[in-house]
Amino acid sequence: MKHLLGKLILALFTITLISSAPPAVDAYKIGEQASDFSLKNIDGKMVSLASMKGVKGYIVIFTCNTCPYAVMYEDRIIDLHNKYAPLGYPVVAINPNDPEVKPGDSFSAMQARAKEKAFPFNYLFDEKQEVFPAYGATRTPHVFLLDANRYVRYIGAIDDNAQDASSVSTKYLEDAISALQAGNNPDPAETKAIGCTIKVKS
Fold it and tell me: Considering the entire predicted model, what is its pTM?
C-alpha cells in the first residue's frame, strides 16, 4: 500500500511539474495581432500564414515528435485539420525543439514522422527558435487560435484529457472555433497547456 501511495505521489508531482510552465515575457496575449512568419515545411518549401489563401483563421499548434503528450494528441490534431481546414481553419503545426537537445525532433525525423502518420497539415520547423518565444509557447502541444487577421483569440490546451481521447469532456479548441464561427469571443479564451517543456540550447 505504501509503495502504491508513493507511486501516486510521484505521478502527481510529475504532472504538477509538466503543467506549471512560467509565462513567456512579451508573448502574445488574447486580442493581440501575431506577426507572420516564414518557416520550412517538411517538403522543404517555406510556408507563411499569408501564403494560405481563403482562410478564416489558423490553428497554430506547437508540437513535436518526441513528447509523449504530443504523440498522444497526434491523431486528434489530424482529425482537427481534416474537420476544420475545409471550413477555413487549417492546422499549422510547428516543431520548436532544438534537435541538438532532442535528436528525435530533427528535420529529417519530422519528415519521417509526417510520412508515417500521413500528416495532412503543414509541419514546420522553428529552426532558429524565434517563433515560439514570440507566441509564448512553453509546452508541446500548445495551441494558439488566430482569426483571419492573425489576432489571437484562444491560447492553451486542445481539450481536457491528454491521455484518453475517448474520455474528453470539454473540447476547448473546438469550442473556441465554434465561438469564432458564431461571431463571439471564445470562453474560456485561455486554458493551461499540458505537455513537455520546449527544448532549447542550454
Answer: 0.88
Please choose, from the candidates 142, 158, 163, 190, the residue with its C-alpha nearest in 3D space to the C-alpha of residue 79.
Answer: 158
Grid cell listed for 121: 497539415
Per-residue confidence (pLDDT) for residue 180, from 0 to 100: 97
Which H or E element spans position 109?
A: helix 107-117
Mean pLDDT value of segment 16-40: 74
Pick from 121, 66, 73: nearest CA to 96: 66
Beta strands in 8-120 (DSSP E): 38-41, 46-48, 57-62, 91-95
Q: What 3-state DSSP class applies to 41?
A: strand
Q: What is the pLDDT of residue 201?
A: 84
Say if CB 50 and CB 143 are below 8 A apart: no
CATH superfamily of 2-197: Glutaredoxin (3.40.30.10)
Backbone angle region of 130, left / alpha / beta, with phi > 0 → left and psi within -120 to 50 → alpha: alpha
CA distance 29 to 159: 20
pLDDT digits 0-9 by tens, 65-108: 999 999 999 999 999 999 999 999 999 999 999 999 999 999 99
Contacts with 138 (C-beta within 8 Å, 6 or more apart), sequence order: 21, 22, 23, 24, 193, 197, 198
Domain boundaries, the chain: 2-197
- Burial group, residue 138, by CB count within 10 angstroms (0-12, 13-18, 19+): buried
